[in-house]
Prior knowledge:
The protein is α+β, with helices and mostly antiparallel strands. The chain folds into two domains: 7-37 and 305-330, no CATH class; 45-301, Dipeptide-binding Protein, domain 3. 34% of the residues lie in helices and 16% in strands. It is built from twelve helices and 14 strands. It has helices at residues 13-18, 23-26, 58-66, 70-78, 103-109, 118-122, 137-149, 176-191, 203-211, 238-241, 260-271, 275-292, and strands at 7-10, 30-35, 45-48, 82-84, 153-155, 158-160, 168-173, 195-200, 217-220, 295-297, 299-301, 304-309, 312-313, 329-330. A five-stranded mixed sheet has the order 8-7-9-3-10, covered by helices on one side. A three-stranded antiparallel sheet has the order 1-12-2. Helix 8 (176-191) links the parallel strand 7 (168-173) and strand 8. Helix 3 packs antiparallel against helix 7. The longest helix is centred in the last third of the chain and has 18 residues, at 275-292.
Amino acid sequence: KKGAVDVYLDDDPSHWARAYDFPAANDGKVVKDVFHPKTPTGMQGFVFNTRRPKFEDARVRQALSDVFDFEWVNKTLFNNAYQRTQSYWQNSALGAYGNPASETERELLGDAIDVIDPAILAGDYTMPVTDGSGADRKVLGAAVKLLGEAGYKIANGKMTGPDGKPLAFEIMTTNEGQEKLALAYQHTLNLIGVELSIRTVDDAQYQKRLNTFDYDMIVLLAPGFWYQSSLSPGAEQIWRWDSRSRDVEGTFNFAGVASADVDRMINDMLEARSTDHFTDSVRAFDRLLVNGHYMLPLYHREGQWVARWNTIEHPAETPIYGYQLPTWWDQNAQ
Length: 334
């Protein structure tokens, strides 16, 4: 406001939405830009620990994911600043979302193609869109139906499994941002009779339990650790998703994935010798991860938020990785 800085890199949705109501901004002297990189969004979200018997069934994971009311959360907590994330390499040529499976992809997937949701193969699968009320009856009803297919039913107001035990689990959090999201999730789960308890622990305990996979569910959320995706995924994917890392403490296979199809696709990606083959391999890999419902996808920013004085200029075209401050200039500089 006082001209002490030329450029401000903003990452707070509330600040971005509300903090620029002052004379210089209203007069156009301060400009708000949104830059759109051409890099994958990555994945922030709630992770199901499939080592737990209650999360072994993908239908259960899908139903529990579907009830999260992103529209309510985005409106209430974030001023509608975020977009829903639909796949791990979204916003790039490597992503399954928005890109139908090619013939090569279908060949790579092999028999796995028979169990993949047709919408995921078509590239138009999305998480349910709610009415933003925090209690969308249609979405909740569909989740209850899916749980029913997995052998669950509501008894005395509790979602009860085939073993007669209520469906209940704990989410481990470590900061206020994670807690807010967990509380919103807890609210909608309660509406279908699922009990979610929230346990907030200190950093040391969190890391210890994370390393030993001692949790039902965790939250991966920026600016902490989350699954960032690049345009050149490689061997790091083994330590996130391959069955070889499932029981190795300290790895990033937080979901406990052990899938022969996922292993095969990671290997195919690593052995790709052409750009087209590599792209097909990563897209097929992305489809397998989305179809597995190992995570409840959260959100990503629509772009990079930057406020600047109108004397500061930048190139018209945004580079692949977003804005590059060394290419900007001050019109008043001599």
